[in-house]
Amino acid sequence: MAGILLSFLRELDAALSEHETADLRALKEEDLLSLHFGLGLHIRNTFIHPATSRLGNLLRDECMDPDSASTWLTRLYRDHVQGYPLTMDRLAMVLQQAFGHLRDDEVAQLADRLLRTDTDP
């Protein structure tokens, strides 16, 4: 069984062209918000909003609003195309940037839940 976040990364790999991933790979951190109505919208409509989406249901269970979720998922995907592996430390860093109000232990627990959740119920 594949982890839900790994499955998300693979599905985006398949959906985006090499040109799109090359553009994303070159994107600077401060320019990520420019993707809110492009890639971010695609993430929200494909992976978060559908009632049948395991990832969307998990994010709703964690009380994440779709905009915040798509923002950190966009950052996670940009890191992925830049060659960073999906690890607990990488995910915790991305989540800490998105949710600075959470304590380190809360971020670690959230990252652990996200990494441990499989695509199958």
Your description of this structure?
- The chain has 121 residues and is an all-alpha fold.
- It has one domain.
- The chain has 7 helices and no strands.
- It has helices at residues 4-15, 18-26, 39-48, 54-61, 66-81, 88-98, 104-116.
- The radius of gyration is 13 Å and the shape is globular.
- The protein starts with a helix and ends in a 5-residue tail after the last helix.
Percentage beta strand: under 5%
The major β-sheet equals: none
- From the alpha-carbon coordinates, what is the Rg to the nearest angstrom? 13 Å
SSE ordering: HHHHHHH
The overall average pLDDT, rounded, is 90
The total of helices stands at 7
Derived from helix and strand composition plus strand pairing, the structural class reads mainly alpha
Terminal CA distance? 10 Å
Supply the number of structural domains.
1
Helix content: 55-70%
Q: Which blocks of ≥5 consecutive residues have pLDDT under 50?
A: none
Q: How does the overall form come out from the CA principal axes?
A: globular
How many DSSP-defined strands?
A: 0
List keywords for this structure.
single chain, 121 residues, mainly alpha, globular
